[in-house]
Design brief:
Helices cover 8% and strands 39% of the residues. It is mainly β and 250 residues long. It folds into two domains: 2-47, SH3 type barrels; 49-249, Fumarylacetoacetate hydrolase, domain 2, CATH 3.90.850. β19 and β20 (243-249) form a beta hairpin. It starts with a strand and ends with a strand. The structure holds magnesium ion. Residues 58, 60, 107, 109, 138, 221-222 line the site of magnesium ion.
Length: 250
């Protein structure tokens, strides 16, 4: 199922997408069968970020080619940082270039959306805790990052986490092409099978530290090929099976 969150008739809804049709559903994070199943055309609604996360856990240095271009050693345990929920924006929304930075990069990433409260689950149990997957762009003020021990400043500006366009609950995260395009030019091109730490491992690892809750998001790291964006640019993240997440830099 492809799950979206959208604005229509001045209300926020969850919906399931089939082709160009969107059917209203209850929250995917709690059983709710009381919702009237309204129907909309995809072209008539405004998509929002498909989830409003409580926690956003971010994995750095999780593809070998990106570790090399960044000048680090291959990590033995996941490199973890966090983004605030106020960084989240949806498909076709604007990334605002902050005045504090003079280099703002895209980072195409696979995002895991937690569906069920879980604590200290095994890697085998992890898939049952995942609602689905979506595309993410871990926008990064690269020039601020070296002086920023926890990367919270460089990665935490408002609008620095585009998510979407929808969550696919049937997505197979063992492989799939991941790409970033800047103004139509391919800048990153890899496969999620190259992830050093897999989504299942990450859910197990992180849930051994903190309870993961429905709607929490884990973004899993970016492949090689990072470079800067500038105001006026259009950036697209595409993962096979998860659609295209498009945003504009202003
Ligand atoms: Mg990243």
């Amino acid at each position: 199922m492809k799950i979206c969150r959208f604005l229509a008739d001045d209300k926020v809804h969850y919906g399931s997408i089939e082709g160009e049709a969107v059917t209203v559903i209850g929250s995917p994070f709690c059983k709710d069968d009381t919702v009237d199943k309204g129907h909309y055309k995809l072209s008539d609604i405004k998509l929002l970020a498909p989830v409003k996360p409580g926690k956003i856990l971010c994995i750095g240095l999780n593809y070998r080619d990106h570790v090399q271009e960044s000048g680090y050693d291959i990590p033995k345990t996941p490199v973890v940082f966090m983004k605030p929920s106020t960084a989240v924006i949806g498909h076709e929304c604007d990334i605002v270039y902050p005045s504090m930075s003079s280099r703002v990069d895209y980072e195409a990433e696979l995002a895991v959306v937690i569906g069920k409260r879980c604590h200290a689950v095994s890697e085998e149990e992890a898939p049952s805790c995942i609602l689905g997957y979506t595309c993410a762009n871990d926008v990064s003020a690269r020039d601020l990052q070296p002086h920023d021990g926890q990367w919270i400043i460089a990665k935490g500006f408002d609008t620095f986490l585009p998510l979407g366009p929808y969550i696919d609950t049937d997505f197979d995260s063992s492989s799939g092409h991941i790409e970033c395009r800047l103004n139509g030019d391919v800048k990153q091109s890899s496969d999620i099978r190259h992830l050093i730490f897999t989504p299942g491992f990450l859910v197990s690892y992180l849930s051994s530290v903190m309870t993961l809750e429905p709607g929490d998001v884990i973004i899993t790291g970016t492949p090689g090929g990072i470079s800067p964006m500038k105001p006026g640019d259009t950036v697209e993240v595409e993962i096979d099976g998860l659609g295209v997440l498009r945003n504009h830099v202003v």
